[in-house]
Design goal:
13 helices
Length: about 350
Amino acid sequence: MQLQEKIRSLPAVPGVYLMKDSLGVILYVGKSKNLKKRVQSYFYHFKAHAPKIKKLVHHVKDIEHIPTDTEFEAFILECKLIREIKPLYNKKMKNPNAYTYIVIRQKEGLQRIQVTNDPDLPGGQFKFGPYTASKSSVEGAVRGIQDCFKIYCNHSLPVKSPCLNHSLGLCLGMCLGGNAIEEYNWIMNRFIALFQGTDRSLYEEMKQKMLAASENCEFEKAVKYRDYIEAADFLLKKEKVMRFTEENLNIAVVESLSEDTFKLFLIKRSKVLYRGKFSTARKRQMKAKIKEVILEKFGEDEIRPAMDVSRHEIDEAQIIYSYLQSSGVKHLLIPQEWLEYDNPAYLDDALQSFLCGW
């Protein structure tokens, strides 16, 4: 079948597509909620594409597709195939090793913020990330918070002379020593606690500054504080994904496929342990089977201590976290003690409520 015929015959369903060259080498792996519409978009309106896309399309001579029941499965399958195949154009369009970290290092009596691609910098006391955004994007977000609290000093250590940022009003005066160092470290401790999820006072203070500026009709200043808050939100959302994943929760998810059919996913950390379709025609048998699968899959998966999310997990972790926040699905967190066979009532009651309406 010719390439154009294959494109026209693609189904309008979720799935993954693999673009190949004349030798059958996979150049690019992508996913879509609508395979037909997405793949066609590469070959229509060609002039509007970025140079990398134009170059890719020029070399594509064949397309293979793998349909899935849900968009979520397409996302997960795409991650798996990219990791296994490492297609040329996926690497060109996104460097999988270019993850960014925020590292807090102690230097000359001050806790310094450093944005880096190396999570193992010597002297690092705290590490946040990895972030899939570019290093410049993370640096810009961090800089916004530093500007808001005037903790962006040009000097690397106190030298008893004001830095340029001090004259611009962006530095408390840590470069001059004295009480400014104590205030700086107090702000830095709150910065660290904010990213650890233990103290949101720094974030709330930013909101109060924005509100006060707006009430005083200082709208330019209010817009600046709004930008600072958006920068913090950008970073904190990623940290929330990390912490959620590190908890190693047992998660059951259901997504409707039709009026009388839904799909069940069992997820732990960034791993999908099970996926299966269920019909609501025989509800008692359906619920019994779901309970059996939950006890089997979560029971056989090893109980692991909380640990940092690795670079290899980050994409899957973000996909899973976003999926759980979407409106089209329901999810249930299952504590480990519910899986004990001498305590079945807890799981029974939770499933009864969870599956209500199916």
